[in-house]
Amino acid sequence: MPATAVRSLALRAILHRSMHAERKALLQIHACVVLWGFTAILGKLITLPAAALVWWRMLMVAGFLLLLPRVWRALRGMPPRLLAIYAGIGGVVALHWLTFYGAIKLANASVAATCMALGSVFAAVLEPRLTGRRMSWREVGLGLAAIPGVALVVGGMPAGMRTGFAVGVVSAALTAVFTVMNKRWATRSDALGVTFVEMAAGFLLLWACLPLLDLLPGADARILVPDARDALLLLLLALACTVLPFALSLVALRQVSAFSMQLALNLEPVYAIVLAMLLLGEHRELGVAFYLGVAIVLAAVFAQPLLARRRSIAA
Q1: How many domains does the chain divide into?
Q2: What residue numbers bound the domain in which 90 lies?
């Protein structure tokens, strides 16, 4: 067989393996997004108050990661300054989860998931301030385009759920903060080690702040021992919806672009809302205006990476 034919066959084999690896990685990412979509459903099904739910979730995740030798090796190699930064990010994560599950308890899973779609809007404004990069007026414009959708979302929900929506908006702002901070700092150390520090620090911060939570009207800061049903759901939340998708996403990121990852992550609120409709019947609690508003918000969210992709290709 001629040498050119051999090289051609080898090149085809390499391309085939590369395409297969990319398709597998995309499937892994979407599996992660579906699992993350279940976090809202589990938050609704677990009967514990939001503070106790987050307390147990962070404790379980940190406890599991502490069993891995890789995490111990990562901790030994972390400079004290980075440890302090990751601990601070973990505090923001704890507040984000506290407000996210608070939104679920005060409203429902669909409302909380819709608020998470606003995280990209907040990131467009917060990232330049936190990282020093130039403000993108295109991203700010897309954020403004989502405002009519937010108005429809608020108008399409019962009045009793609007406090939950407000808490969810705070949660979306917090998720933008810790995402930007992780983007800047988390790549400097082993990912599982960083996750352990963030979970452990968030757990300790939440534990220390429980007396302050008791001062908030309507807050329940009791750390209750879960019954058998809640314990099983918490285990699913900690392992199947936190540790497993995190590990899968780390593997998948080696094969796909950041654009593909961002586009897939934007599907999380979609999956969560669909799951809430199918499993919890929440569509009976919300009006047509709510879902129309969700569509407008998601359109703005999906337009952001698509326009960024087009601009980078043109450049």
Answers
A1: 1
A2: 43-247+267-302
Contact status, residue 206 vs residue 15, Cβ threshold 8 Å = no
Confirm if 49 and 220 have CB atoms less than 8 A apart. Answer: yes
**Crossing angle (nearest 10°) for helices 50-65 and 80-106:** 140
In a domain, 11, yes or no: no
pLDDT at residue 11 tops 60: no
Report the run of H or E that residue 307 belongs to, with start and end.
helix 288-314
CB 149 within 8 A of CB 300: yes
Q: Tell me the C-alpha to C-alpha distance, in Å, between residue 14 and each of 27, 54, 255.
A: 20, 45, 14
Q: Write the pLDDT tens digit of every residue in 197-217.
A: 999 999 999 999 888 887 776
pTM of the complete model: 0.83
Q: How far is CA 153 from CA 102, 229, 296, 297, in A?
A: 18, 33, 10, 9
Angle CA 180–185–187, to nearest 5 = 105
Q: Which residue has the tokens 């679920």?
A: 104
Q: Considering only CA atoms, which of 155, 144, 177, 110 is closest in space to residue 300?
A: 144
At CA 86, angle to CA 27 and CA 270, rounded to 5?
A: 35
Phi/psi at 268 (5° precision): -55, -50
Backbone torsions φ then ψ of 215, nearest 5 degrees: -80, -15
Three-state DSSP state, 49: coil
